[in-house]
Amino acid sequence: EEQSRGLIILFTSSMTVIRETRDRCNEVRKILQTHRVFFDERDVYISEENALNLIKRLKLQGGMNEMRDDEKIQSLNESGVLRKIFKDFKKVEDDMTCGGCGGYKYTPCYTCRGSKKSTVINSPISPSSSSLLLSPSSSSTLKCTKCDENGLVRCKYC
C-alpha cells in the first residue's frame, strides 16, 4: 500500500490465551518504544479488518520489505543495526499518552457509543404536529456502519 510506505506497522494480538504470542508482541512493542519511533499498532484480535489487512500483506510478501520475525528484530536491536534502520523514521515527540484513547488506539464508536446499533428516526406521528412526538414504529434500529464488530473506531487523535 502506497500510503503505508515509510510507516512502521506492528501487527499484534492481545489475545491472552496464547501467552507466547502476546509476550513476543509485547517484546517487539518495547523495542520500538525504546527507539522512540512512531509506529502504528494493529491488533488482529480486536479488529477483523486488521486481521484481513495482515493476511493481505502476507500474501504480497514477495515484493514487500518487512521484518516479520521477532527474534530477528531482537538480534538487530542487540547488534545496533536497528538504530541505523530507524534513523530516518518519524520519532515520537513526547511520552504523553493520547488523551482520546489512553494509548489503546481505539475508542467506543461516537455514533452508537459502542452498542453497534444506530437508531434512525423516520418521521413524526402527525405531519401537521409541531411537536416531535414519536411512535415506536417511527424509528428503526440498524447496524452501525461507522464501527467495527466490537463497537470500536480508530482514535481520531492518534
UniProtKB/TrEMBL annotation:
InterPro entries: GRXCR1, Thioredoxin-like_sf. Signal peptide: none annotated. GO terms for biological process: sensory perception of sound. This is Glutaredoxin domain-containing protein. The lineage of its organism: Eukaryota, Metazoa, Spiralia, Lophotrochozoa, Annelida.
